[in-house]
């Protein structure tokens, strides 16, 4: 939908996107969870079952949204392409999805203070899960013996895109930034497993989004280090 206007969007899609951006800005976790788990899938089935959602460029025309929301929207956009419109998935899509993930993670990692962002736990898990899934998909694609000439050119010009070193660097950077290992070590030293299990959710509620995200990130790293 590049180059098209937001005016082509159905009214209920426009209303959803406007409300979604407001809910993220207001850090309304209950409404964000409803948007993420119910409304987005419902509208996908209704209008975008075999087509793409509007691009972030189109959404930016509609919303007075900050870059962080557009990164989150792009995360959903490319995940939808991988899951529902995979026949149209291009190398450029893979590259841009990776770039968006890096931008999103950098916004958390390099922030001087906690980011004003509050996402449902399920979305946090899905972000890391999808990041690793797309890395695996790209690795399989890159390992093929034959590619289209234009794909070969893009792969050659972007050697660091979805490389294992860059992916691990992102994941380890999130863990290091959050100091989650130190927190886990502290709770483990208390010698009370039940206390450990119950404190973590409370601790997570009062930490910046980076810390919450990296609890899941630490789990996601297991296949690489085991």
Automatic annotation (TrEMBL):
Question: Which parts form a coiled-coil structure per UniProt?
Answer: none
Pfam families in UniProt: Paf67
**Keywords on record:** Cytoplasm, Initiation factor, Protein biosynthesis
Q: Does the keyword DNA repair apply?
A: no
GO CC: one term?
Answer: eukaryotic translation initiation factor 3 complex
Annotated GO MF terms:
translation initiation factor activity
Q: Which domain of life is it from?
A: Eukaryota
The UniProt entry, under InterPro entries, shows: eIF3l (IPR019382)
What name does this protein carry? Eukaryotic translation initiation factor 3 subunit L
């Amino acid at each position: 939908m590049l180059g098209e206007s937001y005016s082509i969007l159905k009214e209920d899609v426009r209303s959803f996107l406007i409300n979604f951006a407001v809910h993220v800005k207001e850090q309304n976790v209950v409404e964000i969870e409803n948007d993420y788990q119910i409304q987005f899938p419902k509208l996908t089935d209704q209008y975008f079952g075999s087509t793409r959602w509007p691009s972030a460029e189109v959404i930016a025309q509609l919303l007075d949204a900050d870059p962080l929301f557009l990164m989150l929207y792009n995360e959903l956009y490319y995940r939808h392409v991988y899951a529902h419109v995979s026949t149209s998935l291009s190398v450029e899509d893979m590259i841009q999805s990776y770039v968006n993930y890096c931008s999103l993670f950098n916004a958390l990692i390099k922030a001087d203070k906690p980011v004003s962002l509050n996402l449902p736990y399920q979305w946090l898990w899905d972000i890391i899960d999808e990041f690793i899934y797309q890395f695996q998909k790209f690795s399989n694609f890159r390992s093929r013996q034959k590619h289209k000439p234009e794909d070969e050119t893009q792969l050659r010009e972007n050697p660091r895109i979805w490389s294992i070193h860059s992916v691990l660097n992102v994941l380890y950077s999130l863990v290091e930034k959050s100091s989650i290992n130190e927190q886990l070590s502290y709770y483990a030293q208390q010698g009370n497993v039940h206390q450990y299990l119950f404190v973590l959710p409370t601790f997570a509620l009062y930490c910046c989004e980076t810390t919450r995200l990296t609890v899941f990130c630490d789990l996601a790293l297991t296949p690489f280090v085991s």
